[in-house]
Amino acid sequence: MRTPPSLVSLAIDSALAHLSNISDLSFLPDHILIDLFLKTLRAGKLTEKILKLFIATGKEEVLSHIEALNIQLVLTPVLPTSKKNLRMSQIIDDNDVDIVIGALHPDLTSFLDEWRPVFSRFHLIIVKDPDLKDELTIPGGFNLHVYTKSDIDKAVGSASTASLFSGYSCRYFGYLISQKKYVVSIDDDCIPARDNNGGLIDAVAQHISNLTTPATPFFFNTLYDPFCKGADFVRGYPFSLRSGVTCALSCGLWLNLADYDAPTQALKPGQRNSRYVDAVLTVPVRTMLPVSGINIGFNREVVGPALLPALRLAKEGKFRWETVEDIWSGMCVKVVCDHLGVGVKSGLPYVWRKERGDAIESLKKEWEGVKLMEDVVPFFQSVRLSQAAVTPEDCVIEMAAAVKERLGPVHPVFARAAEAMVEWVKLWKVVRTQLSP
Amino acid sequence: MAAGTPLLKDELDIVIPTIRNLDFLEMWRPFFQPYHLIIVQDGDPSKIIKVPEGFDYELYNRNDINKILGPKASCISFKDSACRCFGYMVSKKKYIFTIDDDCFVAKDPSGKDINALEQHIKNLLSPSTPYFFNTLYDPYAEGADFVRGYPFSLREGVPTAVSHGLWLNIPDYDAPTQLVKPSERNTRYVNAVLTIPKGTLFPMCGMNLAFDRELIGPAMYFGLMGDGQPIGRYDDMWAGWCTKVICDHLGLGIKTGLPYIWHSKASNPFVNLKKEYKGIFWQEEIIPFFQSATLPKDCTTVQKCYIELSKQVKEKLTNVDPYFTKLADAMVTWIEAWDELNPAKDSAKLPNGSA
């Protein structure tokens, strides 16, 4: 006659069958707990929720079983393995990257949830716009630090907070205190875009790929980025220029709501950017461009101080149509890059920019920015730095002096910009010294 | 066919150099038939090159070139597709489109046949923007515009002198790259046209090229290549560098990108290496020369610019190789021949562009 099952084993089997209804296992005696654990494993029923139940008991033997078997909680979501879905081209050390987000909206839940497959590997620096009154809502599962007005005040003094880090410029505080080599920054009203095959674009991986492959600013390659797969330098490209230079800045683009200025968008309210241009190219030396802060990556170690919050419009607002701070910052960086012999790339990756704001309202409120470009662009096209300027800090100081002298008399906003640039370099030096080991 | 792009069939000539045959024209028939063709037959003039039925064309072989230019024919290359520039000289139209006889109609990602000529015309008829880079590429393309930060004073652009198209399938690599990557194919369709910024040089490929002959024609001399010359496969490169310097000086624009054609034939990399060999070394000197070349303010026409450049070539590049003296002389001969065949009209004179 077969031995009938013991009451204990029947109880354990029953528990196994109803595990999903059990919310606490800590009352179980150790030997029964272990038995249940092993049976759960054998039955293939160890889910994340149930694993957490067992871990929550705190019982040593269970925990050592878990460790011995190397069972881990899957924090990062399983990424698609198909190459089509993931535009990864470079192996990056996640510890080398900071993702800096300027929070102009209090609720970052949908933003971060949309970016979770891309961001969750990295450390995030979230800087709250000092003017934002509401508390931030941030979903869990990220490795991040949040900086609010009081943190910024403590680090740089409240006067600097007001003059340098309000609105979109709050992100520069993140650049200031980051300790990583690469920084990627994306506006909080953008979500991942999809490429022509419908795959989710990993904007961070693309920026890092741009930054870790050489740039070629001295001669134009007609097949665009020669370092990307399937491309190369074309006939007629001098061999001595084929090793390229370090890429210090990667400027990404936007689908849906493109980064047009207010007059353009007001004139063409229905125009949306649906053209996916599958290219990255180096912006040639001495060629200026309007860098949009919406979607960028940069090598902080090479050009960090040159990305700066300086041009603050009188009626600067919380829509990109009401700012030009990034355009100014981008041209500073380009001049510095040209001078230091490093490169700037433009093109991929794309992000999807959500509908927001009213171009006509923005135009009514702030049209000065558009006018100021007429002075800004010729200035940057003609500014020259001395041989003595060998660091980005030196370059910024020289540029600030040139701004004060040549643009200051034109409009007070430029005189303030020059002051802000000098203040920024000072802050950079002070904060970096404090942060270094 | 996009609505609104003019055909320009009476204002555009298609120049095709050939040494083999013109069978490829059959595939292009739907797009090329309205236009006048100028066939420049290279190699043995006694060979009969058959032109497919139904095309309106004029054909020049070496005997014709010698007869028309007399002693000046020495500037036209023999046994090299560089001879095509004779077609530019002899044309009477405003626009030129030139294409190699191993280039076919490509398909865009949706599978539709690409009308390369139509895209070139679009490129040439809309302005260029060489003074400030637009991150959304050609702002005049449908669905695009100038981005935030682009000064309004620069949004009118400048006239476009050259439209440089690209190639799918066999990419235009030099011989060393071809040897290392014999099976690499260009499959990436980049849906953009962009202006090459002022002050930036580029490698101009003559396989799929269009230009405004009235604006820049005399600069499109494809040099001394092929038979009896120490170098080959640098004809279009040379023309491109001269053209870019002159366009920058005169305030004209050059675009690159769309349209794509399908390049079907990979030439023999060892033959290419022999032809290019000297060029690979020489270009290290030539590029800095062009990058630093400046033209005086009184060079207000393309011809004047080109003559001035030829002087600088003779002066600065002869120590690289005596070939450059010959080339500089040929550049002058070319301009003389051009002016003879194209007696001066006011359209050749252009004001200097602004910085």
Automatic annotation (TrEMBL), chain A:
PANTHER family: UDP-ARABINOPYRANOSE MUTASE 5-RELATED (PTHR31682:SF4), UDP-ARABINOSE MUTASE (PTHR31682). Belongs to the RGP family. One of its GO terms (biological process) is cell wall organization. Keywords: Cell wall biogenesis/degradation, Golgi apparatus. GO terms for molecular function: UDP-arabinopyranose mutase activity. It is found in: Golgi apparatus. Its main location: Golgi. InterPro entries: RGP_fam. Transmembrane segments: none annotated. It holds the Pfam family RGP. This is UDP-arabinopyranose mutase 5. One of its GO terms (cellular component) is plasmodesma.
Automatic annotation (TrEMBL), chain B:
One of its GO terms (cellular component) is cytosol. It is found in: Golgi apparatus. It catalyses: UDP-beta-L-arabinofuranose = UDP-beta-L-arabinopyranose. It holds the Pfam family RGP. Keywords: Cell wall biogenesis/degradation, Glycoprotein, Golgi apparatus, Isomerase. GO terms for biological process: cell wall organization; plant-type cell wall organization or biogenesis; UDP-L-arabinose metabolic process. SUPFAM superfamilies: Nucleotide-diphospho-sugar transferases (SSF53448). Its main location: Golgi. This is UDP-arabinopyranose mutase. Glycans are attached at R148. Its EC number is 5.4.99.30. The record marks R148, R155 as: Required for activity. Belongs to the RGP family. InterPro entries: Nucleotide-diphossugar_trans, RGP, RGP_fam. The lineage of its organism: Eukaryota, Viridiplantae, Streptophyta, Embryophyta, Tracheophyta. GO terms for molecular function: UDP-arabinopyranose mutase activity.
